[in-house]
Task: structure prediction
Amino acid sequence: MKHLQTFRLIEAAARAGSMRRAAEDMNITASALNRRINRFEEEFGAALFERIPGGVRLNPAGELVLHHYRGTLSDLSRVQGQVADLSGERRGHISIACSQALLPYFLPREIARYRAEHPGVTFSVNVRDRSQAEQELASYSSDLALVFEPIYLVDFEVLHVIPQPVNVVMRADHPLARKAELRLRDCLDTPHVAPSVQYGVRHLLDFAARRGTRRVAPVIETESFDLIRHYVLHEGVIGFQIPIGLKRPDDGSLLFRPISERDLPTGNLILGQMRGRTLPVSSARFAMQLAAALRDI
Result:
């Protein structure tokens, strides 16, 4: 597959934003990298990069070439998976972009289940917010995305949807734990820790708060749902998360309760791939497993 090496060099230059840094990353000289790319541009009939202060960036022609290369790699991976299946031994690599909520319990369990049957398959798990996950699909950086409340859904082919209400995370002795129903106004009047604005949970909270007289004003704003789960034990504040990322500890120190749907609509956790893409065999089979597991929740 030596013919793909030039494309790898183009991708490295695009990623690094500099021919010199790309050459260092690829362990070749900068002059050799420049010659390879210049030769390709001459044969192709168009320049791929534009010079900018401090480096280079892809021009529109370069973006098209890089998209073609990533699509070619995807097709090649799919054929390799099919050939491996002929021998009865599934191989391949699966990349998935996912929300943080999937990391503690759901994804580790599902990946272990898959690898128990197909130990030749490897995984990349890329933690992304809802906008980044869709970009990962479009750039072929991830085969699958499993995210809460994705934004655009333009090139997103939905494979499965599961509703997930926003839950309040609190100490078992928190005053709100005694309420029969949690209203959003009570939660926002209580000191709280909230996810950053790029996450779906925060989007739903902000949207619902704008319809009333309260606002989301966290004492701590964070990109880490782990921090939210653990911090509520220290100060007695409340946090917010979706059920798939929660598991009540054995000591009963934490309690999870949904916010009333009268105030906050249930969100959607969506499994998807890039629209129109034929996934490699291993990724397609793992997507089927994930969809089945989500249906069982």
Q: What stands out?
A: The chain has three domains: 2-64, 90-163+269-296, 166-265. The two ends are 43 Å apart (CA to CA). Residues 2-64 form a domain with the Arc Repressor Mutant, subunit A fold (CATH 1.10.10.10). The chain has ten helices and twelve strands.
